[in-house]
Amino acid sequence: MILVFGGNGQLAKAFQFQLEKENKKFIALNRKQCDVTDYIQLKSAFETFRPKIVINASAYNLVDECEVNYFEGFKVNAFSVAHMTDLSKKFGSFFVHFSTDYVFDGSKCGLYCENDSPNPLNEYGKSKLLGEKFLLQSQSECLILRTSWVYGNSKNNFISKLMGWCKNNEYLKIAYNEFSVPTSAYDIAYYSLIAINKGLSGVYHLVNSGFCSRFEWAKLTLSLLGINKFLYPVDRSIFNLKANRPFFSAMSNELFCRNLNVEIRDWQNALIDFLQNYYEK
Ligand SMILES: NC(=O)C1=CN([C@@H]2O[C@H](COP(=O)(O)OP(=O)(O)OC[C@H]3O[C@@H](n4cnc5c(N)ncnc54)[C@H](OP(=O)(O)O)[C@@H]3O)[C@@H](O)[C@H]2O)C=CC1
Ligand SMILES: Cc1cn([C@H]2C[C@H](O)[C@@H](COP(=O)(O)OP(=O)(O)O[C@H]3O[C@@H](C)C(=O)[C@@H](O)[C@H]3O)O2)c(=O)[nH]c1=O
C-alpha cells in the first residue's frame, strides 16, 4: 500500500494519475482527511493503512507568504516531516519526500549538483532545508527528490499565474533574469515511481533537462497556447516581492539519470506534452 499526503496538490494529483495507470494500490489523503501538522492524525493514518511506501506531497508553498507566516511554513515543511520520518521508522515504511531548488542561493556559475552546499535565501527555502535535515539525521530509509518550478493542474503555479495576468493586462511584464528548470508534475511522478521501484535512496535532483528564464518559459507557454500577448522583458527587482529568490537555481538531473539508467526529456518537450494532454483550463 502506498500512502500519499497532501492529496489535493498538483504533484499529488499527478501521482494519483500515474499510480492508477500502473494499477498500484494507493490511498491519497488531502488536508481535511489528514492534517500533517497534527501528530495524532498522522499516527492514525499510519495505523489504518500500514503503508509500505509513504509519499509526502504536502507542503506550504506560498513563497512570499512564508516570509510572514514562517511559523506555518516551518510547521508543514519541517516539523511535520520530522513526525512523518518518525512514524515511517516505527511502521517500517519507505519515506519519499520532495524538496526545492530554493535551498540554493543561486550564486553558482552552473547547474547545481547534489553535493553543492545549500544556502537558502528565503524562509520557504530554509523550512524545506530543515525538513531535509530532519529526514537525513534520522538515518531512516528515505528518498529526497529536489525539484523546481513545478507545474501541473493547480491554481498556484507560474502557468496559472501567467493565465491570470493575461486576463487582466494588455501586455505582460516578465522577468528575464531569473533562471531554473520548469518541471512537469507528471514527469516527476513517473520518474519517482521508477526510482522507488528500483530502491533508490538518498538525495537526488529530479527536474526536466535544460533550463530557462521566466521570460523564455512564459513566451513558449503563450505561443503553444496560441495566446497573442506582448511580453515585455523586465528586471525581476521591479516586482518588489516579499521573498528573495535565487538568480540561477537550475539543477542537474545527471546523477538521478545515471543511477537509474534513464533519460529525462527537456523542459520544452515536457511543456508541450502537458499543455496538449493534461492541462485543465
Ligand atoms: N510548486 C513548485 O514549484 C515546487 C514544489 N516543490 C515541492 O514539491 C512538493 C509538492 O508541491 P506541489 O504539488 O507543487 O504543491 P501544491 O501547493 O500544489 O500542493 C501542496 C499540498 O499540500 C497540502 N497541504 C498544505 N498544508 C497541509 C497540511 N497541514 N496537511 C496536509 N496537507 C497540507 C495543500 O493542501 P490544500 O490544497 O488544502 O492547500 C496542497 O494540496 C512539495 O514538497 C513542494 O515543496 C519543489 C520545488 C518546486
Ligand atoms: C508578478 C510577476 C512575477 N514575475 C516573476 C518574477 C517572480 O520571481 C516569479 C514568481 O513566480 P511564482 O510566484 O510562480 O514563483 P515561486 O512561487 O517563487 O515559485 C517557486 O515555488 C516554490 C514552491 C519552489 O519550490 C520553486 O521551485 C519555485 O517554483 O514570477 C513575472 O515575471 N511577472 C509578474 O508580473
Automatic annotation (TrEMBL):
<comment type="pathway">
    <text>Carbohydrate biosynthesis; dTDP-L-rhamnose biosynthesis.</text>
</comment>
<comment type="similarity">
    <text>Belongs to the dTDP-4-dehydrorhamnose reductase family.</text>
</comment>
<protein>
    <recommendedName>
        <fullName>dTDP-4-dehydrorhamnose reductase</fullName>
        <ecNumber>1.1.1.133</ecNumber>
    </recommendedName>
</protein>
<keyword id="KW-0560">Oxidoreductase</keyword>
<comment type="function">
    <text>Catalyzes the reduction of dTDP-6-deoxy-L-lyxo-4-hexulose to yield dTDP-L-rhamnose.</text>
</comment>
<feature type="domain" description="RmlD-like substrate binding">
    <location>
        <begin position="2"/>
        <end position="278"/>
    </location>
</feature>
<dbReference type="InterPro" id="IPR029903">
    <property type="entry name" value="RmlD-like-bd"/>
</dbReference>
<keyword id="KW-0521">NADP</keyword>
<dbReference type="GO" id="GO:0008831">
    <property type="term" value="F:dTDP-4-dehydrorhamnose reductase activity"/>
</dbReference>
<dbReference type="GO" id="GO:0005829">
    <property type="term" value="C:cytosol"/>
</dbReference>
<dbReference type="InterPro" id="IPR036291">
    <property type="entry name" value="NAD(P)-bd_dom_sf"/>
</dbReference>
<dbReference type="Pfam" id="PF04321">
    <property type="entry name" value="RmlD_sub_bind"/>
</dbReference>
<dbReference type="InterPro" id="IPR005913">
    <property type="entry name" value="dTDP_dehydrorham_reduct"/>
</dbReference>
<dbReference type="GO" id="GO:0019305">
    <property type="term" value="P:dTDP-rhamnose biosynthetic process"/>
</dbReference>
